[in-house]
Amino acid sequence: MTVVVAVVGVGVTLMLSITERARETGLLRAVGLTRRGVRAMVAWEAALAGSAAALLGAVIGAGYGLLGVRALGVGFDSWSIPVPTLAGLAAGIVAVAVLAAVVPALRAGRVPPIRALQNA
């Protein structure tokens, strides 16, 4: 259920971003960017946002974890973050972001350049 909510949330955000930048997308299409190029641009934007979210989430999560351990007074000798688990979670976050970008990317690629420039 959490993944579905994440996909919908990211998808709506990307759709809003693409709608607000319709003129920019239309201009790029008018100067020769293909539909595939527009879709790739949206997918890369989603992947970059997902990567930033994963990095920020890992740092904030580790910080809160450390604060929680100290607040509870639980002693430990070493601090360890399981890198393979963290890498898998980061890859999952990026995959969800790219999956959420599919519909907005398809819609952005379908808009004719002249229509995007007229309506913006």
Automatic annotation (TrEMBL):
One CC-aspect GO term: plasma membrane
InterPro entries: ABC3_permease_C, Macrolide_Exporter_MacB
Pfam families noted in UniProt: FtsX
Record domain ABC3 transporter permease C-terminal: where: 2-113
Localization of this protein: Cell membrane
Main location, first listed in the record: membrane
Transmembrane segments: 46-67, 79-103
Membrane keyword on record: yes
The keyword Phosphoprotein appears for this protein: no
Topology class, membrane: Multi-pass membrane protein
Keywords: Cell membrane, Membrane, Transmembrane, Transmembrane helix
Any GO molecular function: transmembrane transporter activity
Recorded superkingdom: Bacteria
Family per record: Belongs to the ABC-4 integral membrane protein family.
Name of this protein: FtsX-like permease family protein
